[in-house]
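Quick check before the chapter quiz. The format below is the same one you will see on the exam, so make sure you can read both the input and the output lines.
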Amino acid sequence: MPSKANLTGTTLPRRQLGKALRDARQARGMTLDQVARETENSRSTLSRIELGQYDKIKVREIEYLCRYYSLPEAQTSYLTSLASQSNTKVWWQDYRHLLIPGFNTYLELESYANQFRIYQPLIVPGLLQTADYARTIQCLFTPDDPSAEIDKRVELRMQRSARLTRQHWPVRAEFLLYETVFHALVGSSRTMAAQCRHVADMSTHENITVRLLPFAAGLPTGTVIPPFLILEFPESEPSVVYTEAAIGSMTFEDEEDVKRFHALYRTLRHAALEEQPSRDRIRKIARRYEQ
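Here is the expected output.
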């Protein structure tokens, strides 16, 4: 089932911490009610900690739970470090007041993900947008906002994009984009030409794949699929799906839900052009805008 993406703090360490504590409790065959009673905690607090939804974690409380569950010293040290990370100031702290509901949680997940699979049928995904394209989108979405706030949102978007091209350990990203994305005029023809060329150039990086769904692909899934992102993480952390809309966003963490999105992505990718033909077509569209 989806969950509202409205958490605060640093999400992935909280999720990892919660899963480890839940595993420790279940290994002892105990219920939340039993642990709450014996540790003098509220059941609600313990449940939220295990779900990674508690944003007021105290290291000493985690140490106490680790001792209560008789966890080894090394594991206790690891879990208390996760508790500390969950309270760390995030790099986008200064932009929080500018974010739409739920986008804070996405940024937290995005910062820890090591691979993205992004499907977008309408506009260029944020991670591939040029500054001019992003500014035009922001002006259309929030026309009454001061230009200084719009500039800050564009600045945030450009900082996020830097993860794709940084020198050390750039994030792997796969993009499935409908051809419509490049024919929907955003700003001027000059803006669109530069945006098309930027996407084509980005697709030449080893860690970035862009595949185009041509008009001829029709509806591969038999229905209209809204934009979605599959985020994958290091080690054994399960994938998360994020969907965004004008009025808010949702995250999907249930294993069966995530599997369905993976299946949708595979179907869409099967209908898409390969990388080089996609790049060639995007550059051809750019030349049309330049005429």
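If your answer matched, good. Residues 1-9 have pLDDT under 50 and may be disordered.
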